[in-house]
Specification:
It is a single chain. By secondary structure, the chain is mainly α. 71% of the residues lie in helices and 7% in strands. Strands 1-3-2 form a three-stranded antiparallel beta sheet. β2 and β3 form a beta hairpin. The protein is elongated, with a radius of gyration of 20 Å. The relative contact order is 0.10.
Length: 124
């Protein structure tokens, strides 16, 4: 009998995380931003310096990426010295991504209607 250490539940969680990772990269984050977000999501509160060391991203780049993630609303910082960072809950990120996708669809639909009207008015 083969003994696997992963339960059906943990495989489901990994599958969900992999899908989330792909969705994040496709729609919202760069690869480096995704690394930082997933790291914080898994490990919790951490300093930029430690994030930089563990993920092997230059420290100045790590600060820039954390700032971008904060503007996107998926990472927040503490008011401590040194400043520490944490990720928002996965559910919140999914909501942010869903809203971003809905807004993009609405924008495309609006542009399509506007282009259609422009084309029709030229033929009248």
């Amino acid at each position: 009998m083969i003994n696997t250490n992963k339960t059906h539940s943990s495989l489901g969680i990994e599958n969900t995380i992999n899908k989330l990772n792909l969705m994040i990269i496709d729609y919202y984050f760069t690869v480096e931003e995704t690394k930082i977000f997933l790291f914080l999501n898994k490990n919790g509160i951490e300093t930029a310096s430690n994030i930089s060391k563990i993920l092997n991203i230059p420290r100045t780049e790590t600060y820039r990426l954390l700032s971008t993630l904060q503007r996107k609303g998926v990472v927040f910082s503490t008011f401590s010295k040194p400043t520490k960072f944490n990720a928002v809950r996965t559910e919140e990120v999914l909501e942010i991504l869903s809203n971003k996708i809905r807004n993009k669809i609405a924008q495309i639909e609006s542009e399509t209607r506007r282009n259609h009207l422009t084309i029709n008015s030229r033929w009248e």
